[in-house]
Amino acid sequence: MNDTEILKATKTYVKSVLTNAEGGHDWFHTLRVFNNSMLIAEKEPVDLLIVQLGALLHDIADSKFYDGNETIGPNMARQFLFKHNLDSSVIEHVVNIIKHMSFKNSLDNGQTFNSMELQVVQDADRLDAIGAIGIARAFNYGGFKNRGLFDPSIKPNLKMTKAEYKSSTAPTINHFYEKLLLLKDKMNTPTGKRIAQQRHKYMEQYLEQFYAEWDGER
Fold it and tell me: Most buried among 47, 123, 193, 212, by the most CB within 10 A?
């Protein structure tokens, strides 16, 4: 099976698994991350197949939808790739990308693996968490979890541990300060940093408008 065939099979597999996924973590999220990864990878010395597979499989079983179990996604990816006879070094690299790319693993110094391929896919995923789409995804997930929009009495936790992040039930606006506004300074690649700057600015403008409307000023 050549690269084109394995990518086609992977896309078909991911689409089927994510058929009923929450709107911020569905096939279209995966496709955006894939496209972002391709854009970033153009200027980085990476193994393109590993980047592509990592992007396609990164959210195959997001732990937040599996009672916090962080092993299901990597195991599903490994089984799928093994079934298609990929080289073991490729499989383990892709699995390590899935294991280590999430924001929560940057808390408590939990990211113990690194590669240029991981950095590209990680930037691509983080770009989809900020800007206009990032805002839409945040409120979509907040609604999915029945969280409030904003509560002035609940202050953001700016020094979250990984455990606190995973168990948080704070209003969605808090998520901007606890994650989304932090991502600009966590980007790895020049392309990722450049795109993140504009999307970060958009979120700041959105929050300014949000608070003005909340207080009846506009």
Answer: 123
Q: Which domains does the chain have, with CATH numbers?
A: 3-214 (1.10.3210.50)
CA distance 2 to 8: 10
| CA 182 – CA 117 distance, rounded (Å) | 22
Q: Which amino acid is at 15?
A: K
Chain-centroid distance of CA 8 in Å reads 22
Task: Please tell me the pTM assigned to this model.
Answer: 0.93
Using left for φ > 0, alpha for ψ between -120 and 50, and beta otherwise, residue 19 falls in: alpha
pLDDT band at 165 (very low <50, low <70, confident <90, very high): confident
What confidence category does residue 103 fall into, taking pLDDT thresholds of 50, 70 and 90? confident
State the helix-helix crossing angle for 27-41 and 190-214, rounded to 10 degrees.
140
